[in-house]
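Example 3.2
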Amino acid sequence: MREQGFEQYTSLASAVSQELGDEIISQNIHNWCNRDNVPVNYLFALCKILKCSPEWMSTGRVKFFQSPVQFSPKKCIMPIHKQGVNGEKISKGMLTDALITDREWFREAIGSEPSNSMMLISISQDTMMPTFCPGDIVLVDTDFTAARDGLAYVEYDGLVEAKRISIGSDTVMLIADNPRYPAKQIAKAELKIIGYLMHMFQGRRM
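Structure, written as tokens:
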């Protein structure tokens, strides 16, 4: 950032001011960069404007799955992981973006506080259409892994996929909402529940 010219500092200052509703001048941006010390709420705003994560901004690296949710008093940052097209497990190479949002909005929309047990997944497969489609983002709560009926992100037979699951006494039905894909029945012992789907980013509660 130190190499950026006055016009770029002014542009960033204007964008941060608009994002936070505070009056930020180009000299503020210049001073933060020279001191390598950006106030956390402004850092979050800068990351949103520049479409990067705070960790990447400070180190150039992102953490391996599962990346933690990051917080400030008013904001939260949730990494977005890309679902493997062929059911691959999520890895650090599948970190594609981040959702930066107000914690108050999150509480109202989701009905709970954001936590490190939550993860966002960008859907790549069409198996659950029309419930959600490729490109949709779903929120998964990994704290709840006890077997019960519902929409879940599951691991089975070396694959990781979103499925509608129906629990029997000894078996589990893995149901794809897209009628092109037949339901699968597996032994309950073969199923690992990564977490249940709480919310779709478009705003529909699961």
